[in-house]
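Dear colleagues,

As part of the handover before I leave the project, I'm documenting each prediction I ran so the next person doesn't have to rerun anything. This entry is a single chain, and its sequence is reproduced below.
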Amino acid sequence: MIMKETPVNKIMENTLEKMRQMVDVSTIIGEPMVTGNTTLIPVSKVSYGFTSGGTDLPSKSNAELFGGGGGGGITITPVAFIVIQDNKCRMMQINNYTSSADRAIAMIPDLVDKLTELLQAKDSKSGEEETSAE
């Protein structure tokens, strides 16, 4: 189905194009900031919406009269930082946790790091015991 080119279509296309120009990937995942041996990468949530509409107005002179408009809005909310330090990566949320489940999920990377360190310490300890037994 081919759509007829109307003023409403033009309004919608212009509104969407302007919004695309304002929001890109670097808006969501920001530019890395390096301080010493730590790298911080900002993470944001982007929400946007738009609307447009119009109507053809009746006219006695057969001229095409059109009334219409369009608009949009964007909200950019910083939500977290990705922190890279000493070859470890973790996410630090900015907002308070909304539930216990959010808090538990946020703790998983630290838990994995601690378990990895324990397993590596145990492996190196057992390796030392085998060496001393020989």
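Residues 100-133 form the longest helix (34 residues). The mean pLDDT is 77.

All the best with the project,
I.
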